[in-house]
Amino acid sequence: MNKKNGFYPCIACGQNYPIKNLTPIGAVRKAITEEILHDFPECLPKDYICQTDLSKYRMKYVHSSLKSGKGEVTDLESELIKSMQQHELITKNIDTGLDQKWTFGERLADKIATFGGSWSFLICFAIFLAIWIIVNTVVMVARPADPYPFILLNLILSCIAAIQAPVIMMSQNRQETKDRLRSENDYQINLKAELEIQQLHEKLDHLLIHQWDRLTEIQEIQLDLLSEMSKKH
Question: Which of 7, 12, 143, 181 could form a cystine bridge with 2, CB 3.0-4.6 A?
Fold first, then answer.
């Protein structure tokens, strides 16, 4: 330990670091301290741990907490732990990622389903029906191609409905996939935010303790100066 130069050893790795790069064990959350004590029973609250090892024990605690809560760590939670270790963002644009995976037929089904549920389709369909009825009842009244009650028209409508139904179902299935991936991404974001808020509290606690120690040292120096001044007088 080199206190004169402000270097202290890390309880985990044993290397010396400046005090600003260390965290007192007493400032670490109890749950994480228990993880450290499991590996280093001789650890005391006045000992220090470096940021690298502290992050390692934080991730170890997160992993063990998730595993104890559900019995196993899911792929989503493993990805979350990895992103926290590497300080990466986990926010994703689900639509962009999925659009690159869909085939031409799947994208075509989405467009057909979108058009089939729009006012444009209803207006075009109404115009088609009106033209069909007028042609077969007024224009071709002598020899209509599809006389009343429009059996051919009913057949065409039935075929359109039979084709449109599975297309809409395919589009709904892909929409369910998008919704599920969005929910999984929201879960990761919320869980990561909660864990990072906990880490922020720990850092604030460490900062307050460090500032308090500095204020205490300054006060002791002031008292020493006052004592020396009183002795001179």
Answer: 7
pTM over 0.85: no
Which amino acid makes up residue 195? L
pLDDT digits (tens, 9 = 90+) for 155-191: 998 998 888 888 888 888 888 888 888 887 787 778 7
Q: How many CB atoms lie within 10 A of CB 231?
A: 7
* pLDDT attached to residue 218: 62
How far apart CA 145 and CA 152 sit, in angstroms, is: 9
What pLDDT, in 10s, does the model give residues 28-75? 878 788 888 888 988 888 888 998 888 888 777 776 765 554 444 455
**Domain limits, the chain:** 7-91+186-232, 94-179
Residue with tokens 């906990």: 198
Residue 8: strand pairing partners: 17
Q: DSSP H helical segments within the chain, as ranges?
A: 30-39, 51-70, 75-85, 94-99, 104-116, 119-134, 151-232
Nearest to 90 by CA among 182, 177, 203: 182
Q: Give Cβ neighbours of residue 206 (< 8 Å, ≥ 6 apart).
A: 23, 24, 27, 28
Neighbours of 58 (CB within 10 A): 22
Q: Which residues pair with 7 in a beta bridge?
A: 2, 18
